[in-house]
Amino acid sequence: GESVGLHLPTLSVQEGDNSIINCAYSNSASDYFIWYKQESGKGPQFIIDIRSNMDKRQGQRVTVLLNKTVKHLSLQIAATQPGDSAVYFCAENMPYNNNDMRFGAGTRLTVKP
Amino acid sequence: NAGVTQTPKFQVLKTGQSMTLQCAQDMNHEYMSWYRQDPGMGLRLIHYSVGAGITDQGEVPNGYNVSRSTTEDFPLRLLSAAPSQTSVYFCASSYSISLEAFFGQGTRLTVV
User: Fewer Cβ within 10 Å of end Cβ, chain B: N or C?
Assistant: First the structure.
């Protein structure tokens, strides 16, 4: 079936470097995407979202890029800090399934000092 | 403002026991949902509710029941626990079904 997936299950970066976390989606009807951050022992926390009428959206130190042609989503974190170490999930809405959100498996980001 | 509160944080059950996971939110959100999180599988939707008195099944509803008698509360019931239900459970709420969700801290459930 259609699902949200991630290319890289783990990512390790040096403090101060930029991080890029990727997500592939296969539901061409999805028109809303969210990135969540989950720290150890906590629930997921909203980072940034993007609708399909946009291809880029920026927040504080984070940028989400959406490429609808290849069904690809990425989260860029600038000047990665130790506090960014977490698991990052992308989620897409499912317009033909009550519009609920489906989550990918997650990518674990580790920031080395 | 407490946000989404889940209780208990940890629970061990024997196979066949029943229990209720509690979830409460104080943000006046209409939409509430329950997810389970298993290693390598992300979050999967169990049940959700778009308002008091309305519930519906998600991706993995078997073995779970829910009810929504008030806007604030959305308990998840396991009628007869099975080892396959060992997981971390998250409750979430949002203004709408497809908007930013606020998650609770999770309940780690082990069924032996």
Answer: N
Q: What is the pLDDT of residue B1?
A: 63
Contact B2, B70 (CB under 8 A): no
Q: CB of A47 within 8 Å of any CB in chain B?
A: no
Task: Round to whole Å and give the CA distance between B48 and A18.
Answer: 37
3-state secondary structure of B45: strand
Number of neighbours of residue A14 by Cβ within 10 angstroms: 10
The two three-digit tokens of residue A43, written as one number = 């629930």
Q: Is A2 on the interface with B (CB under 8 A)?
A: no
**In this structure, what DSSP letter does residue B19 have?**
E
Q: What part of B 20-39 touches A (C-beta under 8 Å)?
A: 33, 35
pLDDT at A83: 96
User: Is the Cβ of A106 closer than 8 Å to some Cβ of chain B?
Assistant: yes
With a cut of 70, say whether residue A3 has pLDDT above it: no
- Pinpoint the alpha helices (H) of chain A: none
Are residues A112 and A14 in contact, defined by beta-carbon separation less than 8 angstroms?
Answer: yes
| CA–CA gap between residue A8 and residue A10 (Å, rounded) | 5
pLDDT at A45 over 60: yes
pLDDT of residue A8: 45
